[in-house]
Amino acid sequence: MNSPRIAWAVTGSGHYIEECIELMLTFNHVDLYLSQAGEEVLKMYSIDINDLRNKVKVYRDKAASAPPVGLFYKDYYQALVLAPTTSNTVAKCVLGISDSLVTNLFSQAGKCRVPNIVYPCDIAPEMKTTAPSGEVMVYPRKIDLEATEKLRDFEYTTVVESVDDLSHALAVYK
Fold first, then answer.
1. What pTM was estimated for this model as a whole?
2. pLDDT tens across 129-139, in order?
């Protein structure tokens, strides 16, 4: 292997997804992991998976055991990015539930001491987010905000609050 790669996971959140994908595509050594909901959301935002396949390797959530997570044991990845990340995925990560491709990635990256950068969709009591029709206001629930806060205490995990923060956190991997 010439250069360690970045694993980038997309879940079912549309929270600035177009900007997250645009940022992802600025990296030369990145693999894209899609949850089933992530695939659906890409379609809602008119992001063509086939176009992405021409630029990055794409892994889809199709196997119960999430075989690609073994790459973390081979030092194949230098970082895992979850961006954007649903409240469901954040909650599962906080509780240690690894029952999908993305939550397995988070679990195995942590066990291998590979840094995680997570961009949750729920970061403030009132916030703007993106919907297929444009920006909208949302009011995350207390339980979702609490899960995001708990995630900040995880080893090897950085929680970012904007695409700019995500870009700054990723600068060391350029």
1. 0.94
2. 999 999 999 99
CATH number at residue 103: 3.40.50.1950
- Identity of the residue numbered 158: T
3-state secondary structure of 138: strand
In which domain, by residue range, is 78 found? 5-173
* Angle, helices 142-151/87-95, rounded to nearest 10 degrees: 50
Name, in order, each residue with C-beta under 8 angstroms of 99's C-beta and a sequence gap of 6 or more.
92
Q: CA 4 from chain center: how many Å?
A: 18
Task: Say if residue 39 is exposed, middle or buried (CB neighbours under 10 Å; 0-12, 13-18, 19+).
Answer: middle
Closest CA to 159 of 125, 123, 110: 123
| Token pair belonging to 54 | 């021409």
Number of domains in the chain: 1
